[in-house]
Amino acid sequence: MKIHNFNAGPSILPQEVVRKSAQSVIDFNGTGLSLLEISHRSIDFLEIIEKTTCLVKKVMNLNDDYAILFLQGGATLQFSMVPYNLMDQEAAYLDTGFWAKNAIKEAKRFGKVKILFSGKDQNYTHISKNYQIPYHVDYFHCTSNNTIVGTQMKTFPQTSVPIVCDMSSDIFSRKLNFLQFSLIYASAQKNVSSAGMTIVIVRKNVLGKIEKNIPSYMDYKIHIQNKSILNTPNVFSIYTSMLTLEWIEKKGGLSILEIENKYKAKLLYDEIDQNNLFENKIHKEDRSNMNVSFFLKDKKLEKEFNKMWRKENIVGLDGHRFLGGYRASIYNALPLKSVQFLIEIMKEFEIKFSS
Amino acid sequence: MKIHNFNAGPSILPQEVVRKSAQSVIDFNGTGLSLLEISHRSIDFLEIIEKTTCLVKKVMNLNDDYAILFLQGGATLQFSMVPYNLMDQEAAYLDTGFWAKNAIKEAKRFGKVKILFSGKDQNYTHISKNYQIPYHVDYFHCTSNNTIVGTQMKTFPQTSVPIVCDMSSDIFSRKLNFLQFSLIYASAQKNVSSAGMTIVIVRKNVLGKIEKNIPSYMDYKIHIQNKSILNTPNVFSIYTSMLTLEWIEKKGGLSILEIENKYKAKLLYDEIDQNNLFENKIHKEDRSNMNVSFFLKDKKLEKEFNKMWRKENIVGLDGHRFLGGYRASIYNALPLKSVQFLIEIMKEFEIKFSS
C-alpha cells in the first residue's frame, strides 16, 4: 500500500533516506551499536557532522565565509537568536504570514522593528516587491516560503543591509545565489530530516558587532567555536540530513530539484485553475512551489471531497488549522506520481460534482 | 558480536526500545508512513505525547500540580531558561562539577548567584551536605549526578525554597520523592532516548511570579499552554522516550531499577577498591551509581589496559577528555553481565600486571 504523503511537516523524506536511517538505528555502519547509542564526540559522529557541513556548503555553493550549525529549538528559537546576536537598535521585517509574524513578535523584545510590508490586509495572498530597506537597520528579515498560506518569495532585494532568511519550508528546493544572505535558518522537518534540528548558515563576519549578554546556547559565536557540539546535538537528525544531502547530490543538486519542483507545482496549479470546483487565492507570481493551498468554491462539497481523497491513501491534504481548505505540500521527496494522482482525483471529483 | 557499551551519553538504550524505534522509522504502527513523516499535530502523535506525559507522571509518582514538557536545546538551554523564568534577584547554586559550573555561569547573566558549596578545591570528589539555603533566594539549583567526575547526590536538602535539579544523567534511575522538587530537567540521551530532547518537569505554581520579557521558546508557561507543541518538537525522541518508559514500567518501575543500578555499581566499586591496580577518588558516600570513574594507580599501564578492554568489544570506557582515566557509565539499560565482564577484565589485568 503506497501512501501519498502531502504532510506540511514533518513530511515525506526520500525512501532510501528513511530506509538507511532506520538501518542506522538498528546497527550503525556495522559497529554493532545503534546510532542512538554512540557518543556525539566519537570519531564516527565527528565524521558525520563534518560531512554534512561540507555537503550543505557544496549543495548551496557557499564559501568559507560561512559557518554551518546544527542546532535545536526550531525556527522559533531562531526568532529570538537572530535579534539576540544581530540587533543593536532596529531591524526591518517583512510580514508575510503566520511565522513571519511570530518572528516579528520575538524581535520586538530586543529593539525596534520596522515592518516594510504586511500582507495581512490581503490575507497574506501577496508579497510586495516594492519596499525600501532603510540603510541604517541592523538587518532585514524575510520568510522565503510561507508554509501555511502558500506563498513564496521568488526574488530577494538588493541591499547592503544583511539579509536574514527563514527558509524552513523551502531550503534545498531551488538554486539561489545563497551568498546574498548573511544568515539562513531552516528547521529540518520539511525538506531535510527528522524534526528537532535546525540548520543555521551564517556569514561569520556579521557576528560580534554588538555588545549583548547572550545566553551561551543563544550565541552563534559559541556554537561556531564548538562546531555545533557545545552540548549534545540531535545526532539522529544530523545523520539523516547527511543522507538527504547525499540523495540531493546524487539527483544532480538544487538546479535539478528546482526543475522537478516547478514542474510538480505547475501541474497542480494548472489543475486548480482549470477545475471548476477549486480555486487558489494566491497572486500568481507569489505562488509557492512547496505548499499549494486551494479551496473548494462551494464549501458544501468538502465532505464529499474529503471522503474521496481519504479513501485513496492520500494523507496530509487538510489545510492549516487556522485557514481550512486544502494544502498539498509537495516537497523535494514527494514523487511526481503523487501529484499526478491527486490531479486525477480532482478531475474525477469535478466530473462527478460539477453542475 | 555483542558490544559492551559504557558510553556516557548518548549511551546504551534497552534493546527492545532500539528495535521498536527502528521499526517505527520504517513503518509507524502499520500506517505505511515513517514516524519521521507524520505530522506532530496528527492524532497519532498527540496520543504519543499524551501517553509519554502520563508515563513520566506515573513512573515518578507526580501529581497534577506538575506539567511535563518535551523541549529542545539540552540541559544547556535549561541553564538559561531556569533563571529566565524563576530568577528575580538571586538564586543559590551548588558547584559540584563541570555542568553545575556551566549552569552557574548562565545564571549569573540574570542576577546574583550565591554558591553554597564548591567542590572545586577537592577536584569535585565530594558533595557537601553542610550548607544553609538562605530563605530569601528565588530558588536552589543542584545537579543530582555529575557525569564527568562520577558523584551523585544521595539526599536533597529540606527547604521551603523551590528546588531546581538537573537530573540529566540519573533521571529514571532511582526512586525519590519527586514532589520535593519544583523543577527537574534532564536531557534525554542517557537514560531515556535519542539525543536532541529535554524533559522538563515543573510544578506549575512556581511560574509567573516574576516580570520578565521572556522569548517565547524560553518561556515554560507558553510551552505548558501549548502542550510542548508550540513548534515542531523532536517527534522521534519523544516516541523513543515513550518506549523506554514502557520498558521501565514493565520492569517494575524505579524501585526495581534502583536495586539493579545499586547492585551493578556496588560490584564495580568493590572491584576497584580491592584491585591493586585501580583506584576511585570519590568520597564513598558520594559515589555515583551511574558513572563510575576510576584510574590506574600507575599511569604507565594505560596502554596495556586500553589494548585489553578494546579488543574485548568494550566501548566508551575512556574517562572524560577533561579528566582522563576511565569511566564506566552503567545506565539503566546496561546489562549486569556487561559490568561482570568488565570486572573479569580488570581481574585478569591485575593478575597479569600486579607486581
Describe the structure.
The structure is a homodimer of 355-residue chains. Chain A is α/β, with parallel strands linked by helices and 355 residues long. The first copy, chain A, has nine helices and 14 strands. A seven-stranded mixed beta sheet of chain A has the order 2-10-9-8-5-3-4, sandwiched between helices. In chain A, strand 6 and strand 7 (151-152) form a beta hairpin. The model of chain A has no long low-confidence stretch (mean pLDDT 97). Chains A and B meet through helix 1, helix 3, helix 4 and helix 6 of A and helix 1, helix 3, helix 4 and helix 6 of B.
Short account of what is shown:
Two copies of one chain form a homodimer. Chain A is α/β, with parallel strands linked by helices and 355 residues long. The first copy, chain A, has helices spanning 15-26, 43-60, 74-86, 98-107, 220-225, 235-251, 254-274, 302-310, 336-353; strands at 4-5, 66-71, 90-95, 112-118, 140-143, 145-146, 151-152, 163-166, 183-187, 198-203, 278-279, 291-296, 314-315, 326-329.
